[in-house]
## 1
Amino acid sequence: MDFTHLLVQQLINGVSLGSIYALIALGYTMIYGIIKLINFAHGDIYMVGAYIGFFAITQAGMSIVPALLVSMVVTGLLGMVVEKLAYKPLRHAPRISILITAIGVSFFLEYTSMYFVTPTPRTFPAVIDNISFNLGSFVINGQQLMILGITVLLMAILTFIVQKTKTGKAMRAASFDTETAQLMGIDSDRIISLTFCIGSALAAAAGVLVGIYYNTIDPLMGIMPGLKAFVAAVLGGIGILPGAVAGGIILGIIEALVSGFLSSTFRDAAAFAILILVLLVKPSGLFGKNTREKV
Amino acid sequence: METMLKIDNIHVYYGAIHAIKGISLEVKQGEIVTLIGANGAGKSTTLRTISGLLKPKEGSIRFMEKDIAGVKAHQIVKEGISQVPEGRRIFAEMSVLENLELGAFIRNDKDAIREDMEMVFHRFPRLEERKEQLAGTLSGGEQQMLAMGRALMSRPKLLLLDEPSMGLAPLLIREIFSIIQDINKTGTTVLLVEQNANMALSIAHRAYVLETGRITLSGDAKELAASEEVRKAYLGG
């Protein structure tokens, strides 16, 4: 009984943590899908999103939903600016140049933020009452419910945009074959910019949600979740949207189980063990087909 | 007949490689013009330069009295030029219907788009049967039809076709070429790049022969098909 109890409880924790990874992983995978860049600055975009949410709540006195929206919009714009200034000039450069630039952008965001907001961690205000619900003998708290609700809503909106709208179809086309998309009259530069905007907005939402969940934010908070989301994206099959969601949730669950049954010290090790395992056994990821090489 | 496309002495480079060394050609309204030549002669490069995927270093490209050299590919479509790329390049992970919708990306006239979709289905009945299917599951011939239908969805004045016969069985090639003639008869001007010189010359009005980045022969398609030089080099004797 005790074992099952702990298991289910850890599953609940794992899914809420995993849905945050999933939000970040979606941006990773979308950006990879369209310009084949592992955007190592993505975790730092998430950190900036958390800070914008923090200031929207503490300085502007907003409640959670407007603060979330403001953070998503501003961070989305930041993502577009980063793409335009740092990555766009390297569109035709060798891939390694743009990868190294991404690492540079990552450091730039981390240490510029540190200059402006100081390295001291901040306490994220408690935006929702500390309530919890008992489902039988299991506990799910208000934050977890909110994280799940917001994540599911955002994913539903993203799915609608990508599957049903004209812009979404253009995004899928450009991500499959940029050159041919241009022959359809699709402005690939605009689509790439938009992809950075959406991906960054999703990361911002994750940042705010993490702030609420863990109550603390700091300028280097993006490093580990950024790497974990990368693992999640690879686990699901990089470039594949449902893969990023599945990868995020699975990673969250595994981490929660490792923390619950072994020790939280091994949590990060578990995540990277998964990365190594995926790369050894099925590099294309759970949802990936065998790598398609374009001729 | 009015000149629709006029290319004057263009030079195109791939990095350091001088791929097109001063090509001039013209396409008149209502014609089928074909560019034939061996692999690597610069046929595809010429088409890709017209459609804006490549930029000429020198020379001019005028389409309907407008200079379009160096205009970006996604804007060229709006001018009325649509390209069926080499190897079809359909969006394999999207449905047949979505591929056709993307062909009409630059348009907003929903009703007319629906009519054109009907027209494409009428021309290619097999596409209608498979419209919900993922494009990647179609056979080679069907994919070629989809690529052509997709290009027609933008209502082009000039249709650029790059090696439509590639990898297809002889019977299918004949079908595709008769469809090209049909498309031309209904008012679309065609510039066709082909390695299958026989087929290309049989439906074209005029032809240009390309050799390593230069035009070596040009003229009436029937006359070229009969000429000793072309027969030897491209028609297998």
## 2
Amino acid sequence: MSQDTKKEKKFTMTLPPEELMACGHLACQGCGATLAMRYMLKGLGQKTALCIPACCWAVIDGPYPYSSLDVPIYHCAFETAASTATGVKAGLEMAGDPETTVVAWAGDGGTFDIGIQALSGAAERNDDIIYVCYDNEAYMNTGIQRSSATPYGAWTTTTPVKHFKNRPKKDIVAILAAHRIPYIATASVSHPEDFVRKVKKAKAIKGTRFFHVYAPCPTGWKSRPEDSVKLARMAVQNGLFPLYEIEDGEKYTLNLKLKDKKPVEDYLRLQGRFRHLSPEAIAEIQAEIDVRWARLLKHVEA
Amino acid sequence: MKKVIMGNHALSYGAMLARSQVISAYPITPQTQVVELLSEMCADGSLDARFIKVESEHSAMASCIGASVAGARAFTATSAQGLALMHEMLHWAAGGRHPIVMGNINRAMAPGWSIWTDQNDSLSQRDTGWMQFYCSSNQEVVDTVIQGFKVAERLMIPAMVVLDAFALSHTYEVVDVPDQKLVDEFLPPFKPEIRLTPADPRAFGGLTGSDHYMELRYLLQREMEKAPALIEETGREYEKLFGRYLGLVDPYRCDDAELVFVTSGTAGFTARVAVDELRASGVRAGNLRVKVFRPFPFDRVREVLAKVKRAAVVDRNCSYGAGGIFYQEVKSALYGRPGMPPLFGYIAGLGGRDIMVDSFKEIAADAMSKDRAEQEIVWIGVKK
Amino acid sequence: MRPKKAKKIVFKSAEEMPIMICSVGDQTHNLTGAWRNIRPEIDLSKCIKCGICWKFCPEPSIDVVDEWPVVDYDYCKGCGICAEECPAKCIVMVEERR
């Protein structure tokens, strides 16, 4: 392509151009959670209200009296993302605004651990909210402590190398599927088009919608900031974090079919939190991925 | 319209007449009838509100906070363990300046499990920044909910309407249920200056450094200091429309009294029977009912007690290691002021034990026999 | 999006503060470019305008000017995702010298 033809070529934008996130925010370099927010807002647009509990995003958005987002935010208590969002939705409706999409936006600690009761309550009632869990697999905001989303084998400040986490990650999607809510999706910051498409789809559905978003954290994973998108992509491609949707708790759709799953070892080797793992432990992780992948395929084929 | 209703239903009627828009609640004895009636009102259309049947009291208050910041009038009710579970969110509601009104049925804290009345549940929430109103009749309950919303929304500070378990919550009394049109005239729709909306996108309650946090709390206290005068002003306004005045304190035969029982909640009515009987037997007794605990009505309490010879504070609660909680407050109101009477502190009626007319007579005999309190606590009716 | 480089806000007294604890502006005064150790430099002669650098920027500090990607160095934190993901390999991270 000559420079002249290139001059005329349009810049390719595969995502909506509207930016609802301003620069100057406080995310670490290469933050996956920040990409996740950017994509979600591109999908939902400005008529959105967020409830953000204690999590990295409670800091990223900026201290009082600032906000980096062009949508309203309620900073709520750690365990109340879902219950506050339910209240905001009811309040907006009663105040004459039935349109605004209300989103509970929480990390894995706020979702898998302390917020699971409120989330389960909202899901059982099928409250009209979107709940997004951006999962960086530990309590990163407080300094990398293990959560029930921390994967087997990972180092954190409360699972030191000598006692690394020896239990598998909680299957939050299965828990939500058991509530038979209308829509569940996994999404990865490595696949923003897929993410935005799902967000738009969810926006049109009434009831509780749940997103499990894979959000690499260079600070906590001891990975290079430039590898964040790459790591997220690897997790999709090796079957660790498959992209799929579940409708009404039953209908599974796999969004990205994998001919050959890549071995998990390459992914683990890029992260300091897994540096101590023995070949046996890595084999164990690989076996767990294979079992879960087979289980997912069964659901999809059912 | 006059109706015979239980105290819990008086709360429901208050919430309905105030046109609560979002109700979020969780069942707990002895509060449950409050929300049962409200859910019926929502179901049959007599109340245009969203009822969120949450899975815990913590979520109840969180939902109320969300609804309130979005611009809706929010109501909930709870009791004891439920209130304690909400504790974190009580700070959130007051700190975030969300004018929610909540009914709390005073029930003793476990263990051992108790469903009967005492005030340790609500008084443990003293420092959360909520206004607290203690009622002693079902009429007062209805009137307090309606006035509570008005004061709360003016100050952007939440209000707790407190009533004794069973002694009031399950007692049927004749209540003059206010006319809806008049209530609408008294209490306009909730229209906060700032609310959560995409039309004015703001982040509420973000990380606040030491350069601003103290000012936020100063503002909360400054508004709280306006509350006593506002409660009285609102009470006068209400009185004009409905003929009943609420106010901060309710003195009974105090002017010439040589002994005044300071009480809160339903114990006041028992105290008044005792006052009349004591007077008949030659003791000039009186009763001061403290209706509002936060903000504490320091001036009104001092005004009344300056004229009396002795005051006996009867607490249905205990701050372990200190004493009766109202006693501590009244003492701090009188401290360092000239001409104030000696004060005596009594603890009675914990965990639903009855406070009888004879209990007050026992208190009178003790207080009249001493020049000043010899100990922080005198226990009444305890099997030592 | 709001205009960039809003001013820093410091309330001098409680009276100036809104009744609710709420934001009154963004924090674009916070020039996060100062955090950067390495800076991305785009060789536009090799750029294929695929949009990938723009898409994966977490700030977002890659602007599109006249259909070309331009790094806003006021805010770019130097994470290097753009260089890592660029399929044309036209972005290099060079050491920041101040």
